[in-house]
Amino acid sequence: MEGSVAYDSDLNLKATELRLGLPGTHEEQQAVSNVRNNKRPCVENETAPPPKAQIVGWPPVRSYRKNNSQPVYIKVSMDGAPYLRKIDLKVYSGYPELLQAIENMFKFTIGEYSEREGYKGSDYAPTYEDKDGDWMLVGDVPWEMFTTSCKRLRIMKGSEARGLGCGV
Amino acid sequence: MMFSFPDEVLEHVFSFIQSDKDRNSVSMVCKSWYEIERWCRRKVFVGNCYSVSPRMVIRRFPEFRSIELKGKPHFADFNLVPDGWGGYVFPWIAEMAGAFPWLEEIKLKRMVVTDESLELIAKSFKNFKVLVLSSCEGFSTDGLAAIAASCKNLKELDLRDCEVDDLSGHWLSHFPDTVSLVSLNISCLGSDEVSFSALERLVGRCTNLRTLRLNRAVPLDKIANILRRAPHLVEFGTGTYAADLRPDVYSDLAGAFSSCKELKSLSGFWDLVPAYLPAIYPACSKLTSLNLSYATIQSPDLIKLLSQCPNLQRLLVLDYIEDSGLEALASTCKDLQELRVFPSDPFGAEPNVSLTERGLVAVSSGCPKLQSVLYFCRRMSNEALVTIAKNCPNFTRFRLCIIEPRTADYLTLEPLDVGFGAIVQYCKDLQRLSLSGLLTDRVFEYIGTYAKKLEMLSVAFAGDSDLGLHHVLSGCESLRKLEIRDCPFGDKALLANAAKLDTMRSLWMSSCAVSFGACKLLGQKMPRLNVEVIDERGPPDSRPESCPVDKLYIYRTVAGPRFDMPPFVWTMEDDPSLQLS
Q: Which UniProt keywords apply (chain B) (predicted)?
């Protein structure tokens, strides 16, 4: 359909966008282009659902209901700080709140997030250890996926931080 | 020659007419009735704050005492409306503050309320009595402190489902000694520093308190003291309902619950520990409403509890209740009118509980008065839906959410068109419907044909073509609100049914196939609509006109385009030369 072709060739503003918004929301555009092509999902797959990208606003549950389950405490360390802190990830509804809380806790500023360049504008980069034991940059995956896979947080400082995600 | 009553007589007659709809009808009978009615309307309801300006409302109704306003579209509840879209209440408060100081009630839903607005309310309305903020945001406990301190006649303060910046629990201490609240709902507050002594004192001196909904921070061992100070409570919401089991705390609690002989509604129960649940048994036989949707209580404990509540009319619960619990509900709670089952693990790929269509079928069969359903589940069949429809022809609200989008009938692997078709066919009074699962244009044909009383429809991941949207817009005579996401609906149906939009409150379409060109055309042709394009990718005119817009919000208005839009919202302009009169 003309619509989706036009969309693919538009100015790719996302990559240069500097924002601390919900990353991963653009994934849903893929789902939409399927919709426009009138594709129906393979019904035979019903018994083994493939891992799906999180869709914004689906299922339609209010954010205060998502905090139902037991608190998920994770350790937060900051390079150079004398001791670690613990926070309950369930308390936050998204990356902006989480990063604000960490900034307040350790009294520093994180830079602006962008998909392409990571966190620019400060010496710090927030990272987390995921279920596979890998150290990832905070903010790349949808929030809900992050809260279920994050095991601990580490605020990296200095050259180690600048090495992450930047072309420099 | 028309026989006419003196104005005072008509005014007296009109005073018995409270419903907004009826008042509107009265005002359209003739010019003199319009005049009389507008001077004596005491409650104003504005379903979309941008459909009319505050000045117009005040001009038409110079003597109202109560106003209810709604702001953001419903899908804002699910983070589909970006922050900063709008819905600011301040302009309304500012106009009303200037116009008349005798305002008593303000009720807001999905609006942005700042501390500045709250302070202005506190300063401006000397007889202010009722503040209900539902799903609002933008304020902190500082604003609440201003309300508490200045509104000496405050009766109701209800902050249901709001997002409040909780700076300090001390705002509660700002209530004067003379205040006599009837209703206090602070269940949304997060603060860990709720001043319990201030809370207890406040509850103690509000001898007319009938509704009290506490927040999660209030621990279990404080509840007994609070309840003892308010033995006439009708509606009560606990805080965290968890603690190490201690016999003295338990018996204290049980005693307190049994001393509240008028309790009809219970809620709260965060982190519920089953050992403390029997403490509420003394109140169960009179309960008509129970909200356990924050309680991680498993099915066997739920069944025991529900067997004590034969008069239950309204139940909110997590899917831990499972089919077995719903079957028990169906056999013990014959007066049930409303059921809401929420998902305990909405993002899990696999089911974590045994809750299926069977539970809903059981309730539909056992509870003849069932009218309103919100049900999250992971599988459904046409057969079940048809059974449910036949069991419950009195449904007014039916909202089904099958968690995985486009899930087919699990028995036949067909779309669920026939099932939802049965719902609209048998439930002739259906006012609200939410669809889910695998659905083709067929279901919309059924809806357009049968759902003549339908006022609100929510659609996601459904349909094949514009025909689907066309069926709904051309067939649903009572439609007021339509919200659609991720459906292949485009320009044709929308433009062909443009006139329909004048008869509706609003239309929301996101991640659909409506082009920017069509939005512009619609804006030009329809002077009484605001056609708003919401697109965080950048200005829509930086892309070809055939490019679909990200989000579209269309609403009828007599106030013209608004001027408080953020940079990612554009209102399509009117073009008088293009309008078809």
A: Auxin signaling pathway, Developmental protein, Nucleus, Ubl conjugation pathway
